[in-house]
Amino acid sequence: QNPEIKIITIEDPIEYHLEGVSQTQVQPQKGYDFASGLKSIVRQDPDVILVGEIRDTETVNIALQAALTGHLVFTTLHTNDAAGTIARLTSLGATPSNIGPAVNLTIAQRLVRKVCEKCVKFVKISTGDLERLTVELKGLPRAIKIPKLAENLKIPEVKGCKHCNFTGYKGRLGVYEGFLIDDEIERFIIKEPSIAALKEFAIKKGMVTIKQDGFIKVLQNLTTIEEVVRVTGE
Question: Rounded to two decimals, what is the model's pTM?
């Protein structure tokens, strides 16, 4: 909300009104879609641009050009994971030589249900779950601290009560993965790697996957292994 920073958004629809931000909404029936709206926004020379969603070739190319010419651009795409962002941009017509220099950071997120604090139980981890966590959390960056994975470890188990409508869960929280596009990854993107290869490369550089982040939140007593497996589909 710094008055010296000009922020303009184009959304569909505007869900929250933000003080100090110029917000616009697409009106396809009047010919004002993401592409035409983004063109108009760029001409106003903003510092920061938010594009609610990129859906077509024209919009992705305008957004990338805006980023390449000094604007900070935020947007969303439908992908399965952070590495899939690059493939999605390519499928929409962007070239790897533009994607690498234009994109600074890609983040993927999903929502998991939080355990109900009123009725959650903490039980000794099963042998199978202990083996699963040991395998999945192997090789985490040193900066991430987790409890010792041992047979006496206790993890959340849902029970259910009136407070949570007998589901065992109350509320939601995000699980995330993401990586910075540094010079090394930029050079890798130009080679047009597969999604799997890019994900593996990002992990080698320290990325924590969505599933790993979910299991870390299990160890923080925020959700359950079953919920993480359900949401990550693995």
Answer: 0.92
